[in-house]
User: Fold ABC transporter ATP-binding protein from Saccharopolyspora thermophila.
Amino acid sequence: MIEAIGLTKRYGSKVAVHDLSFTVRPGRVTGFLGPNGAGKSTTMRMMLGLDRPTAGEVRIDGRRYAELKHPLRTVGALLDAKWVHPNRSARAHLRWMARSNGIPERRVDEVLGMVGLADVANRRAGGFSLGMSQRLGIAAALLGDPKILVFDEPVNGLDPEGIHWIRRFMQGLAAEGRTVFVSSHLLSEMALTAEELVVIGRGELIAQCSTKEFVDNAGTQAVLVRSPGAAQLQQLASDQGLRVRSTDVDTLLIEDATTEQIGELAAEHRIVLHELTAQRGSLEDAFMRMTGNAVEYHTNLGAQATELTTSGVAR
Ligand SMILES: Nc1ncnc2c1ncn2[C@@H]1O[C@H](COP(=O)(O)OP(=O)(O)OP(=O)(O)O)[C@@H](O)[C@H]1O
Assistant:
């Protein structure tokens, strides 16, 4: 389990992370979601003892990183896939890491097999594609067989096959009972990968909840209606305070409404409907609205939900 408690990081006057508290539990993939610059990498670096918090702390199975007796056996991380000596082979790179951390060398071939790099184990890591480098980074994270894994944007720049592989691999690690914490700036990606989400914007917590709950709330709801009585229905819906756009003579788009609501309104006034369809706005657009600046967004997502003020600062 990973616990962030009141985590804050300032770089001079820049506040990268502010009073961030959340919990990451084992047995599922938890997505760490936020737009570029939201503070995900900074938070992950603090988790791994690579950056010192200005305030607050991170506990890994109840301890600070610096207190862990065998860090690599407790928590494995992929932060920067290109962090290898370019002239070393994949196997030599992992052997060097294993040796310096008291991990038996036989584990090297095990992890190379797990990530599908056994056939290229003796090739120069500097010549690896991004996808292969990511696999090597994951192999390094797995060397100590840790129960906790932290991956920073592992699918960035990968082709669909690479993305699919990493997604399935992370889900497999979680299914073994491990704690898997993975960052991304794409809600659509996290919706397919993670069961639980920690969402941040401008260094502050926006929500911690299940992915389903977040996605259900993130998409804007609208109802598309096609009807010979569109004009009358437009008037009725407007009278109820709904925002209605007419997209064609017989077609309306009614925002923040449900199909039940519009269907019943039409029935009450004996208006014939030819189509009644629920429409979802783009998930990414909704996500940017929720995490970006200059938005007023009220959410009741999860226990730790916060409310964004017009300046985008959570309170
Ligand atoms: N060493 C540093 N010195 C000054 N500012 C920094 C430093 N590291 C990060 N920042 C700033 O802190 C903020 C958070 O950055 P961070 O890299 O953690 O965000 P992120 O969510 O991981 O985004 P990205 O996906 O773009 O890396 C950004 O505004 C960034 O410019």
